[in-house]
# Entry
Amino acid sequence: MFGDLADLYQEVILEHSQRPRHGKRLACFDASAKGDNPMCGDRVQVFVKHAPDGAIADVGFEARGCAISVASADLMAEVVRGRSAAEVKEIAGKFRALARTGHSGNPDDEALEALQPLAGVHSYPSRVKCATLAWHALLAALQGRKEASSE
Amino acid sequence: MNVMRLPKEPAAKTIADARADFPILGEKVHGVPLIYLDSAASAQKPRAVIAAMVETMERQYANVHRGLHWMSERATDAYEAARVAVARLLNAREPEEIVFVRNSTEAINLVAHSYGRGVLEPGQALLISEMEHHSNIVPWQLLRDERGTGLRVVPVTDAGELDLSAYERLLAAGPVGLVSITHMSNVLGTVTPAERIIRLAHEAGAKVLLDGSQAIVHRPVDVQALDVDFYAFTGHKLYGPTGIGVLWARRELLERMPPFLGGGEMISEVTFERSRWAPVPHKFEAGTPAIVEAIGLGAAIRYLEEIGYPAITAHEAALTEHALARLASVEGLRVLGQAQDRGGVVSFAFERIHAHDVATLLDRSGIAVRAGHHCAEPLMRRFGLDSTARASFALYTTSGEIDALADALAKVREFFH
# Structure
């Protein structure tokens, strides 16, 4: 009955939204920021733990939102682990393009491949912000801000 | 023998016929027929409204109240006829008590500005309720922040009704100048006990504003019988166009209130030393008004009069009862509020499925519902939720559409499990 919605709600998305692996506040963290989407009420807080070399050791999050926003936050937490702030910024930019257009411009990129299940949101313009919310919060945390500025 | 053929009296329009009057309801979305259950956000428009607006622009359009030529006189007559239609709808004493504004939000802001800053006495508090739309919260917060006016909030019970004993306590807790409360909740569908609210407020020396944005769509409203002081509603939820709303107030209140916006149309004389205001309601209608939209609203009211409120109220009561029964049988679905007196608005939530995901799935089945906080965040918090999905019914809604909603919701649950 919901036919083409399988593109949006792929198994991977449903799995990550229902049983997020990183959906918790980290016991100790170095940075944290909140993001909210006042239009729909989605809220996320991202926690970041750095490794001694400055790379990201761990990311956790607390989210109240739709399946897309929770799954996106969870996939993000997996993808950014072990990466530097500069790499995260680059991936975030490519992911934003993926969510808006369905293409990231670099299909061989390992990080982008993991985020590919979210490409379906580009057909649902009102849901693109759900997918990018956690990324905005993460970038804010890495820049030492407490809140993500909305797009 | 010649039989004189008299033109037949047109039969009163029935609810069953009415659906065909709304062209948009024949549209398809995502390849399936549209099931529009978002009328509480904005209602669809009957041909009569669309035609009246087109007719105005094609045949008798000019600016109003500058009637030195034929076109302006016709446009002014049509604009003022719309005011008469609104006065009839509300059973106002006279059309001069009808102020045209953009929407309910502007009507409430007008009262907050002109009554709140111009008439309310220092020390008099404001009373609102926990189930208000943001448009009946924020204007009063602005007034509170500017003037230090007290702002008290009447709580809502678990059943989604106004807590009347708390209301009485809050009225007694110090002087209250104005009670501003919804006549029907846009989230819970609860119809508030307006007569009682008003009687108690008047006994306490307070005036009452009712936000009728939702109520007037579903119930007849008689401002004289209610004995209310201000009544606000918006045209686009009442099958009229956007950009036109109404503030009704007792003439003596309108006369005591200073203007809201200044400009043309609202003056009787202007010099650089001072200006004198036009008589009510024009004192509150600065600038060229929404002429075409007001005429469209007049047409919507005449359309409703053809069908009649008894038929609309009965139809929507049956739909609401049907919806509550069908939704109660959807596993895992929670329906908000069990008010005794309620109109055609039902909010619901699945424990583990977010309202936006619900709305996206329903949309692909052609079903349009609202999802989110419905501009009533404090009420959402009261019920421990961030968001709900909401189905709302209109005179053109069918019970088959409600069945389709319930069936689709059962499938939504399967999809996410």
